[in-house]
TrEMBL record:
Cited CDD domains: SRPBCC_CalC_Aha1-like
Record InterPro entries: ASHA1/2-like_C, START-like_dom_sf
Activator of Hsp90 ATPase homologue 1/2-like C-terminal domain span: 23-159, 189-321
Pfam family, one: AHSA1
Protein's name according to its UniProt entry: SRPBCC domain-containing protein
Family: Belongs to the AHA1 family.
Amino acid sequence: MPTTSVHTDPDTLSMTLVAEFPVPVERLWAAFADPRQLERFWGPPAFPATFTSFDLRPGGRADYRMTSPQGERFHAVWQVTEVDEHHRIVFRDLFTDPEGAVDESLPAGETVLSFEPLDDGSRVTVVSSFTSAADLDAMLEMGMLEGYQQAFGQLDRVLTDLRAWALGQGTVTEVVDDTHVRITRAFEAPRHLLWRAHTEPDLVRRWLLGPDGWEMTVYENDLTPGGTFRQAWAPTGDTEGEPFGFEGENLVVEPERRMVSTERMTGAPFPPNTNDLQFDEVDGVTLMTLLVTYPDRDQRDAILATGMTEGMEASYQRLEREVLSAA
């Protein structure tokens, strides 16, 4: 975790976060000055940001939204007041309506981002200040402190060279907590091709098969929020096993970037989990991140025990052979 400290000060009506990274200050600055990089961490993992405008100059504005796994959108804007390249960014961070008009009924604050070089890297200090104790308390109740910690916990991945960090590692499964598992896999392919491979039936049927000896017998997917999907597999030849399938509802569909859906095994008595699938591309390498939310720890452990990671890796290797290499 790169965050070295985070605290609130009721006397100054502020919250301060300090984070250090083993990169030059120019590289750290670039992560905040490029909206495509900023989108990868400005927001907790389950509430990623999408910047729809970005003018990082005094008097400029950067409009963005955060989208929950249920499809709820929360809109905000940076009203930029000061920019000192590689050193400092100051902006008012305000809630807006979907058209960008400031919502005066919600808390308003000013944020100062300060950047400084260190002997072995660089540091960013984030100070968010409010005009009243009520606004500070409201933001803390909304989870601002935890949200900042989670958001900046993703920044190290943005700063690391994706090709060196992720290619060749295969499928990596990380248990986040009792109900969350994060799965990552990198591909030397553009994001749009990975999206097609996950959404076009003819391509999906070529690789989403798990271990050898299985075939996909059903693939139906209404790629709209509220649309349903259904998938089914059956063994072939001498392969042992019973046919099975999954079904669910799409909650968020942002083409080439994010797809969130519920998923349950067809006919199973337990409640569904939620799959939040995101794609990030840097210099021709796409990192695919799947954040799975389970109803409880027992269901999490039961699914992990099925050999899920190994089955996914077998499918991803087939994806590289059968789809990506042929594109």
